[in-house]
């Protein structure tokens, strides 16, 4: 798991993944990257430590650096899973998470209500109700992976 230590939400993901990895008999390798310059050494370290797949939780740095991340992952032969589809559009293997565009639309709705006089504390807390599975078949093929047809059938989108 690649973690941006400045993102407080990522500790939630880490806390969820550690017991899951243990239940599968695996060890969760966590590497923190605080800047874009830390990315390449982190990928090299994952390879040295024997990582077989890399999870990158939603993070703006990971989103902004998605093309470089895809290149580093491909160079180290690491399949990747992200929280946002944009990472998959630019070469990541798969994502399972919310639709970032829809999140921005929902934020705009809240801003509109606040500008019209609604107190922020009076607005309801909303959680996403739909998660999307997006798979990049070209990346899978480049990594020599075969995605089972049952997984492809469940995907919301398959990028070829």
Question: What would you say this structure looks like, in words?
Answer:
The structure is a single chain. By secondary structure, this protein is of the alpha/beta class. The chain has a single domain, classed as Response regulator (Rossmann fold). Helix content is 45%, strand content 14%. The protein has eight helices and seven strands, in the order βαβαβααβαβαβααβ. The chain has a five-stranded mixed sheet. It has a two-stranded parallel sheet with strand order 1-2. α2 runs parallel beside α4. It is globular, with a radius of gyration of 17 Å. The two termini are 26 Å apart. The mean pLDDT is 92.
List its salient traits:
two-stranded parallel ribbon; five-stranded mixed beta sheet; single chain; 45% helix; 160 residues; globular; Rossmann fold; alpha/beta
What percentage of amino acids are in beta strands? 5-15%
Number of helices: 8
Which sequence of strands runs across the widest sheet?
3-4-5-6-7
Distance between the termini: 26 Å
Secondary structure: number of strands: 7
Strand-helix topology:
Blueprint: E1 2-3, H1 10-23, E2 31-32, H2 39-48, E3 54-56, H3 60-64, H4 66-75, E4 80-82, H5 85-89, E5 94-97, H6 100-115, E6 132-136, H7 137-142, H8 149-154, E7 157-159
Parallel strand pairs: 1-2, 3-4, 4-5, 6-7
Antiparallel strand pairs: 5-6
Helix pairs in contact: 2-4
């Amino acid at each position: 798991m690649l973690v941006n230590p400045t993102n407080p939400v990522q500790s939630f993901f880490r806390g969820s993944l550690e017991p899951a990895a243990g239940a599968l008999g695996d060890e969760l390798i966590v590497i923190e990257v605080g800047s874009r310059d830390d990315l390449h050494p982190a990928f090299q370290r994952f390879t040295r430590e024997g990582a077989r797949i890399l999870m990158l939780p939603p993070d703006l740095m990971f989103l902004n650096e998605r093309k470089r991340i895809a290149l580093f992952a491909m160079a180290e032969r690491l399949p990747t899973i992200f929280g946002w589809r944009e990472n998959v559009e630019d070469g990541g293997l798969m994502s399972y998470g919310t639709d970032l565009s829809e999140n921005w639309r929902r934020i705009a709705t809240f801003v509109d209500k606040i500008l019209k006089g609604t107190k922020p504390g009076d607005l309801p807390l909303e959680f996403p109700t739909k998660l999307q599975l997006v798979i990049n078949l070209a990346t899978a093929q480049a990594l020599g992976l075969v995605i089972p047809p049952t997984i492809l059938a469940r995907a919301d989108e398959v990028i070829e």
